[in-house]
Fold each of these.
Amino acid sequence: EAGVAQSPRYKIIEKRQSVAFWCNPISGHATLYWYQQILGQGPKLLIQFQNNGVVDDSQLPKDRFSAERLKGVDSTLKIQPAKLEDSAVYLCASSLRQATLGEQFFGPGTRLTVL
Amino acid sequence: EDKVVQSPLSLVVHEGDTVTLNCSYEVTNFRSLLWYKQEKKAPTFLFMLTSSGIEKKSGRLSSILDKKELSSILNITATQTGDSAIYLCAVEAFRGGSNYKLTFGKGTLLTVNP
């Protein structure tokens, strides 16, 4: 079974530039999550989708971050404009359904460096 | 706001040692506590503990949930260099409807030296 795919794996940009990350969850997984993991901290949930609807985006900085999952499969996360403090690993995860008692499967992540 | 605190933040041991990692939590509507191992980037699932399953064991790893003390420990016996990783504790809480939220601790960086 293929895992969660993410691209790119690494991205370096300058502050105020825009960047987009892509995630393809495990086939058949209805729930998709985007996490931000700053160095030395645990992952922080940014947004959670159930199919193509948003379940939770309470910690998403909506003035600069946006995410979509138009067809209920793959998803993109965008930052526009980026700030220095956005430097982090962005993890995408998926689970079969919402109430799976925490069995989320994580992708390899995208390491973003903002200069 | 839900809170998950792990200790120690980092630990260095020699191969063969036994280690105990700690996780305490303050959440509303607790559902489960999970342990993940993070090498390089992607966290991989280790254990899930709930009210109906407060102790889990897999090989040299074991974990116990203490619902009274709102805490959990992860034990690793006879450590190997391959156990070097960040160990993340996360707590799943019910948010209403059929929604659940996972809150992670900062993790414990374990380094096992040969």
Note: The radius of gyration of chain A is 13 Å.
Amino acid sequence: AQKITQTQPGMFVQEKEAVTLDCTYDTSDPSYGLFWYKQPSSGEMIFLIYQGSYDQQNATEGRYSLNFQKARKSANLVISASQLGDSAMYFCAMSSSGGYNKLIFGAGTRLAVHP
Amino acid sequence: GAGVSQSPRYKVAKRGQDVALRCDPISGHVSLFWYQQALGQGPEFLTYFQNEAQLDKSGLPSDRFFAERPEGSVSTLKIQRTQQEDSAVYLCASSLMTGTENYGYTFGSGTRLTVV
């Protein structure tokens, strides 16, 4: 069965510093996608970054980068130069087999950015 | 519209009451998903539509849950005879695409259902 594990219930970081949010996954599918979403207190899920299992390079989107280590089955999110507006819940997710990217989410990590 | 719109934003239901939650996806989006997010947890898949066809309802927790998208646009999630364990945020997401390249989801802000 597919599973996403986020072991950090909460993290805090000083403004302007970098932070890494951990994510490990378990799947037997040869092809899969890994996602990170941000959920502020308003409730909507905001897409941050995507990594395909066959992508050779780590994905980057502005201040977000995904540290993809396939052999270790980890897909950590790195946020550089943290901003106060980055304070939110962060969810790692994996697309399941089936062809339309039904997502399996982890339990999330709450990030607090301190001034 | 510019985003995925869900209504109502909040719903309080008495145990045993039926509720209907509405999702207005982005115009033209083919794929539509419903997820259930219990307090302090990540979202869990409920059901998937491709246009008006419900291709996957494997996540619906019981036969009290029913979803429809009759014209391939607006979708309604209906919960009959609500129970306390149904209390959660119900998230809707839509995407222009189908298939394995479908990572361009847009989520709505959700409906927070509280069953008392």
Note: The interface with chain B takes residues 4, 31, 33, 35, 37, 42-47, 50, 91, 93, 95, 98-108 of chain A (CB under 8 Å).
